[in-house]
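hey m, so remember when u said the tokens were messed up on ur end? i reran from scratch. heres the input so u can diff it against urs
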Amino acid sequence: MPVKNNKSEREIQNLQDDLKDIKTKEGVIGYILRGSNSASIDLKDPTKIIDYAVLSATAFEVGREIVNPFDIGEVSRIILEGEDVKVLSMTIGDNRLSIFMEKNVDHDKLCKDLNLR
């Protein structure tokens, strides 16, 4: 079993390294990566951590609730767009990831950068 744990830890570290690179891209506001035992948050405006955390949690909750009535299976990505900002939320393994960005950022490119396409 320890091998699996080490592999998971390595995958999380690789994901966090990719996220640090993504965070430097123009228009990316930040991210929240939440696992079963920990969370990693990196936002340009740390005073809004609670706001972004609520938005992230709500996106996942709504995504989970909407699949049942429509029988559409697992949700791979959730994209919420506002007037100026959007959020890309997804589940990667046992982790929930939300990336916050300006509306003009190409979220498909971010997924490709994360090797998720």
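this time it looks ok to me. Residues 2-23 form the longest helix (22 residues). if urs says something different then somethings off w ur setup not the seq
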